[in-house]
Amino acid sequence: MLRTKYLPTPRTALAVLLQIVLAAGKALEQTQQIQLQVQQQRQQQPQQVPYGTAAEKRLADWNGDAGGHYGGDDYGGSLAGGDYGGDVGGGGGDVGGAIEEHHVQEHHDDHHDPGYWKKKMIWKPGWKKIWKPAQKQIWKPAWKKIWKPVWEPTKKAVWKEIQVPAWKKIWKPVWKEIQVPVWKEIQVPAWKKIWKPVWVPIKVPAWKEIQVPDWKKVWKPVWKEIQVPAWKEIQVPAWKKLWIPEWVKVGIPGEHYHGTDHHGWQYTSHDLWKKKLIWKPVWKKYWKPAKKQIWIPDKKLEWKEAWKQIWRPAKKQIWVEDKKLTWKEEWKQVWKPDKKLIWVPDKKLEWKEAWKQIWKTEKKLEWIPDKKLAWKEAWKQIWVPAWKEIWVPAWKKIWKPVWISEWFPNEDHHHHHQGWADRKDSQGQNAQPVPLSPEFAGNQNKSEQQRLVERNQVRWNRSFEGDVKSPAESLLPPPVPTSNQNAAPSNFTFRTR
Fold this sequence. Notes:
Low-confidence stretches: 1-6, 46-57, 59-110, 413-445, 457-492
Largest sheet: 3 strands, mixed
Structural class: mainly beta
Mean pLDDT: 74
Order of helices and strands: HHHEEEHH
């Protein structure tokens, strides 16, 4: 039987994922810092015009010899030798094969000390990103044989309690009717003398509030019928002269020639008529608006004197009915209590034998359905650990060839610099210098630039222009060297005489 392993919980998986994100963020910050340093070096790097001929190279060597003790190191000679672009950043990339640099020995002689430069190839350590195989623990599904409980239906015998009928002898009480003598309270009539109050009607004088008629002078508004002048819009008849066209028949006097026919006969006519259009005057009746003064009825509000009947309060003496309480003798029939012997029905309790049906409990054997726990074979999917072959990034230390230039003094110390006497270039004063910066180098002719580079034995190193790798490509950057003797300061320029 396979052993099951504890599966990682979602909380554990979340913690591992957070650690991976933090590591990637740190690597991203380091990569951004590297990019920022490269950009600063590019911005602070002065644009220098390199030499393009052998004579200019000698001038640059002389300038490098003159500024060889800049800041107490040998950077000036190495920079004037024409190999500044080959070692920016401490020998960064391996573009274009071996990298040329100058290795200047420390000397305190005069800058006119004769000597010569000699090239030497050395091996410089570097780091290369490689992928190496590794194993990663994964979980793969597997099947495990287990036994799970299953309920199987069965039957079991039980005793069931039932009720069966039976008879039981009992004594039950019975009420028997009997007559019992008792004394009954009765009421006997009697007469009693009493005094009762009686209300006697009388007349009492009183004052009554009454309303007496009276007259009051008032002014009331009255609408008076009047006539008001007004203008009424009416229609009056008028006549308008119109001209209508009419065709009239007019006679044409004289003989009129109409032509000849094919036999030569001439046709003429007399007294012809023609239509003439004339304009005939006609008077047409129409209605035009006008105003007529009329009188229309209206109302005018006036105040008229009038007398109004009102009622004012007054008092009148009247006699009202009232009652007076007096006492009058009278006989009243009352009932006094007395006792009378009577026989009343009553009940007597006796016990009588009777039989009662009861239910007694007995047991009956029955089979009822039941279930039994049994173990059934089953298969369960589990996750077992396994190892997966993956590739992880690693850094490998490599050695790359670098060309350096070393200064060797001549044995004859009395040999002086001949100036420009050994100049052998044929370009003259119209020679165009080859730029060192990659931005200016892309604008020149590639064939001419290659020919000049082969003549001057200068190799251009553009490793600082390489693309910076993303965090996904390189999570672990190579170790940064502690000191770099060949690194040039960003504010360096050639010396001028």
